[in-house]
Design a protein that fits this description.
Keywords: ATP-binding, Helicase, Hydrolase, Nucleotide-binding, RNA-binding. With 832 residues, the protein is α/β, with parallel strands linked by helices. It is built from 36 helices and 23 strands. The strands form three sheets. It has a nine-stranded mixed beta sheet. Helix 11 links the parallel strand 6 and strand 7. Helix 30 runs antiparallel to helix 31 and helix 33 crosses helix 34. The longest helix is centred in the N-terminal third of the chain and has 31 residues. It is globular. It starts with a helix and ends with a helix. The structure holds cytidine-5'-diphosphate and magnesium ion. The site of magnesium ion has 4 residues, from helix 8.
């Protein structure tokens, strides 16, 4: 029998070898093109189909040898140099000391809550402990661990980190899957995915068949997806008694999650951090004054290349720096803030001059160590980058490594962020609150905290999303400070006064109660878990009833739900498209009206972001470039479309780089849009709306602007504003909200508003006032025909009634088209 075992195990070895090869192949095709180069990868990306579990492919005898082979391989890898080196690092992490206790609790309890300071090793170690243990106990074939991450970037970075710690390439036993790409294979036993990907999988696989362990990470952030997932999981656990659920959170509010899961046991990982001094604005300013005085000694040793030293002014460099910042101004606002209220300060922009000066101060006056700067968003990060690159001291690339870090950054040079910089080079990371807890940079010694984060909120009464930088919570402030004390004692510079800090709320509000809920509600319907209202009532903190009502009403208006809140055929199709329901509807209508290419492009831009960049210094030129794409269409959406088409043509000739540069476009965003278009096309083909082998059949009208704007109208309805005269004022009005403004960045911002009777828009946001961002001028007949539920399909009354009107005001072309496609639209609305 030993003989037989050996034979079996070599055969399994071979099988394992083949599996390994598959990974490498799919890995390399991934790198060169998008994620859809082969069937296996594509289905993985959609998150709808499960890869066949390896264990199913093997009979029980083979499975045994497979388990043995996995174990042998794991043992073998442990001996390699790179693994040994990282093992030493791993053993120093606080999580390592808890390994035994953790694994015991996992085997004894169905639900476990683990909390610990950020950086203690929860994300990289805990799932890995389970994986190692399962393989070592010869259960490798049947083990299938999933760990969710709120953000794409952390799913990738963690998966690659663990692969390195195990001495493997990414996509072997550890992989990841995010909306647009995946690296996984049949032998993947630990998969990192975004919470969104897991939620999609739950539609098809409500019992999470074959999943042995599920870890939900960063639950303390209270993201909408995570809160949503927890409701589903609480209902699922009794049906899957063998499933193990591990909730991972930073140190705050772990008890709340334990209570939610029937007092599940909690493990707390005691961390070690060094003390971090805390300076508030008043102290920072004190410190800077001190610097000016003490700078008389002139011990600054920085680069003197090109620096106007002494010749023009006898002033010391530092004095110049802090005069630029205008300390008086800050003192004034500080003292008035103490007199006035917190609100008076809330509107204030982050003062990038002060941020820059603080960074300079640290570089000149403080010891070595990386600086981590918390800003609110991409705008500020890029503004500050630009500023710092123009700064003679900081722009010195031989001395400073300045790195942006932002959640939706498509390509990050991962290692640069985590690795120690070369000697004599200081690392400065400009980040959003992503660096608060999901990404840990070890060597940070200085944190510069602006005290704000961009937060969405939802005004249910006015049905408008608000996106404003607002003060962070005390919990966030604590997290930010903690980032500075990981390798030695650190300093946290808070660029706001202590009185402001004292007024911070303890925790941030959960996202589920500050976001519009239509996508969530549609998702709930597709899970078939009963009524939306009663499902959401089970949440950790249920959303406002009015917000739920608004979402349901919108879904009814666009025809995704019927009067009884049941999913219509349209609603069912929308569930398969992982985008906002309005964008999904635009895609479906676009296929029917044979302009699928423009619909894909516009949907990709709306679902991701606009490819237009706004360079600060050349704003006028950038606006002109955008307007020239729009032509006389009065449409930001057409501008997006034309810009993309120009990029695609330029790419064919190989000069897309120049094209993007000349037209103020982001090549990175455009590439991402390309990937998204492919993914949307795959989804549309999966549900039978397009036949990819006959692209022309779906693009007969792709150059017909009238048709495209009509499709936009059909998709974006009821997002319509009307140009109206009220009293003396003529302005744009919505049904609910009254007056709105066109965003200054829109191509319609300078058009005479009388030429814009109706605009459809993709997003309306309340910042300083209510703005509609991207908008398109539509004709009133397009609105009549395509608004709401499209043409009344049963009686056809609508089209007859409008016929006469249309003959006068619409081009014949469109009328004919509408009549021709009526059958198709009926089918969409009735197709089961
Ligand atoms: O999840 P938690 O915040 O508890 O910690 P973690 O993400 O598991 O990180 C543990 C350690 O691994 C940190 O000290 C990180 O610096 C390091 N790490 C890394 O070097 N590279 C990564 N991609 C992720 C983590
Ligand atoms: Mg973590």
């Amino acid at each position: 029998s030993t003989q037989k075992e050996i034979i079996m195990s070599t055969e399994t070895e071979k099988k394992l070898g083949t599996l390994l090869k598959t990974t490498q192949e799919s890995g390399s095709s991934n790198a060169s093109t998008s994620a859809f180069s082969d069937q296996q990868d594509r289905t993985a990306t959609l998150g709808l189909k499960r890869p066949e579990s390896t264990s199913k492919l093997l009979d029980s005898l083979e499975k045994e040898s497979f388990n043995v082979a996995l174990k042998e391989r794991q043992e073998k890898l442990k001996g390699t140099e790179s693994v040994k080196a990282l093992q030493a690092f791993r053993e120093k992490l606080p999580a390592f000391r808890m390994k035994e206790g953790f694994l015991n609790s996992v085997s004894e309890n169905q639900v476990l809550v683990v909390s610990g300071e950020t950086g203690c090793g929860k994300t990289t170690q805990l799932p890995q402990f389970i994986l190692e243990e399962e393989i070592a106990s010869l259960r490798g074939a049947d083990c299938n661990i999933i760990c969710t991450q709120p953000r794409r970037i952390s799913a990738i970075s963690v998966a690659s980190r663990i692969s390195a710690e195990r001495g493997e390439s990414i996509g072997e036993s550890v992989g990841y899957q995010i909306r647009l790409e995946s690296k996984r294979s049949d032998q993947t036993r630990l998969l990192f995915c975004t919470t969104g990907v897991l939620l999609r999988r739950l539609i098809e696989d409500p019992n999470l068949t074959n999943v042995s362990h599920l870890l939900v990470d960063e639950i303390h952030e209270r993201g909408m997806n995570e809160d949503f997932l927890l409701i589903i999981l609480r209902d699922l656990l009794p049906r899957r008694p063998d499933l193990r659920l591990i909730l991972m959170s930073a140190t705050i509010n772990a008890d709340m999650f334990s209570t939610y899961f029937g007092n599940a046991p909690t493990i707390h990982i005691l961390g070690f951090t060094f003390p971090v001094a805390e300076l508030f604005l008043e102290d920072v300013l004190e410190k800077s004054r001190y610097s000016i005085k003490s700078s008389d000694s002139g011990n600054y040793q920085g680069s003197s290349k090109g620096r106007r030293r002494d010749s023009e002014s006898k002033k010391d460099d530092l004095t110049t720096v802090f005069e630029d910042v205008d300390i008086n101004f800050h003192y004034k606002s500080y003292s008035s803030a103490t007199r006035r209220s917190l609100e008076a300060w809330s509107g204030a922009q982050i003062d990038l001059d002060l941020v820059e000066a603080t960074i300079e101060h640290i570089c000149r006056r403080e010891g070595d160590g990386a600086i981590l700067v918390f800003l609110t968003g991409w705008d500020e990060i890029s503004k500050l980058l630009e500023k710092m690159n123009g700064n003679i001291l900081l722009g010195d690339s031989s001395k400073f490594l300045i790195l942006p870090l932002h959640g939706s950054m498509p390509t990050v040079n991962q290692r640069e962020i985590f690795d120690r910089p070369p000697p004599n080079k200081r690392k400065i990371v400009l980040a959003t609150n992503i660096a608060e807890s999901s990404i840990t940079i070890d060597d940070v010694v200085y944190v510069v905290d602006c005290g704000k984060a961009k937060e969405t909120s939802y005004d249910a009464l006015n049905k408008v999303a608000c996106l404003l930088p607002s003060w962070i919570s005390k919990a966030s402030a604590h997290q930010r400070r903690g980032r500075a004390g990981r390798v030695q004692a650190g300093v946290c510079y808070r660029l706001y006064p202590k009185v402001i800090y004292d007024a911070f709320p303890q925790y941030q509000l959960p996202e589920i109660i500050r976001t519009p809920l239509q996508e969530l509600c549609l998702h709930i319907k597709s899970l078939q878990v009963g009524s939306i209202g009663s499902f959401l009532a089970k949440a950790l903190q249920p959303p406002d009833a009015l917000a739920v009502e608004n979402a349901i009403e919108l879904l009814k208006t666009i025809g995704a739900l019927d009067e009884m809140e049941g999913l219509t055929p349209l609603g069912r199709h929308l569930c398969t498209l992982p985008v906002d329901p309005n964008i999904g509807k635009m895609l479906l209508i676009g296929t029917i009206f044979q302009c699928v290419n423009p619909a894909l492009t516009i949907a990709a831009a709306l679902a991701y972001r606009s490819p237009f960049v706004l360079p600060l210094s050349r704003k006028e030129e950038a606006d002109d470039a955008k307007r020239s794409f729009a032509g006389d269409s009065c449409s930001d959406h057409i501008a997006l479309l034309k810009a993309y088409e120009g990029y695609r043509d330029a790419k064919r000739c190989g000069n897309e780089k120049d094209f993007c540069w000349q037209n103020f476009l982001s090549p990175v965003t455009l590439r991402m849009m390309e990937d998204m278009r492919n993914q949307f096309l795959d989804l549309l083909s999966d549900i039978g709306f397009v036949d990819k082998s006959r692209p022309n059949a779906y693009n007969q009208y792709s150059n017909d602007m009238e048709m495209i704007t009509a499709v936009l109208c059909a998709g974006l309805y009821p997002n319509v504003v009307q140009c109206k005269r009220r009293g003396k004022r003529t302005a744009f009005y919505t049904k609910e909200l009254g007056k709105v403004d066109i965003h200054p960045g829109s191509v319609n911002a300078r058009v005479n508003i009388f030429e814009l009777p109706y605009l459809v828009y993709s997003e309306k946001v309340k910042t300083t006032s209510v703005y509609i961002r991207d908008s398109t001028n539509i004709s009133d007949y397009a609105l009549l025909m395509f608004g709401g539920n499209l043409i009344p399909s049963k009686t056809g009354e609508g089209i007859e009634m409008l016929g006469g009107y249309l003959h006068f005001s619409a081009s014949k072309n469109v009328l004919e088209l509408i009549q021709r496609f009526r059958g198709e639209v009926d089918k969409l609305l009735n197709r089961k």
